[in-house]
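Reopening this ticket.

The earlier resolution said the output was attached, but the attachment link was broken on my side. Pasting everything inline this time so it's all in one place.
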Amino acid sequence: MHLPVPSHPLLPFALTTAPTPSTAAPELSAVDLACRRGERRLFSGLQLSLPARRMLWLRGDNGRGKTSLLRLLAGLATPDHGDVLLAGEPVRKAALRGLRPLYIGHANALKDDLSATEALQFIARLHGRAAGTAQVHGALDRLGVASRRDAAVRTLSQGQRRRVALARLALETEAMPWILDEPYDALDVAGIAALDGLLGAHLARGGSIILTSHQALSHLAGEAGEVRLTAQGIAAPVAADPAPAPTPAAATGAAA
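Inline output:
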């Protein structure tokens, strides 16, 4: 039975099924977190909370530790101090009972010798997501690269590779935290619109998102709360930037 709900501002279509409390993403939080790179401490005393149906845009100067923070939140690295909690327990312990944030890094992590279809299937299965050929083709179509699904990854442009990597999001149906490092990098206007649709659908089903972007996210105005990683390492509210040019440009910045 489908229950009508209001359309989400980020979606180009109206939703037909409302998320329920039981499907909302578990809260992801950082408690008194500190991170060190070599002898240099990147940040300390960091407090951060990402509840269900919330999107955060993590900002900060190059080298401040944004990528390092995202990897900590995903459970891929160990903090110098403090804890990362998912549903109230350490993120790595939560993973033992099947609760895992979805992480897509700045690198696309695609095998050059595989086709786009094979590469996406490999990544999905590596992360425990069974994905048949039809599902994978549908995900690639959602990102606008269906015509390149049989092409070797090494023959794809940077934008096409990014779309294939992001097509993993189109395979997801669970409301879990998404942790995305520069997801808009190398995308053109059509790719940006496709990604926006996936982010909106995820929020509407009860998911949560934290992402970085060197590109202005004016097209997500009102949807993405902003926090900044400062020189003191504290996540603090960010005042709205002046409105940028109407046409978003493809991002080319490197990961922090």
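Reporter confirms the inline version is readable. The chain has six helices and ten strands. Residues 1-22, 239-256 have pLDDT under 50 and may be disordered.
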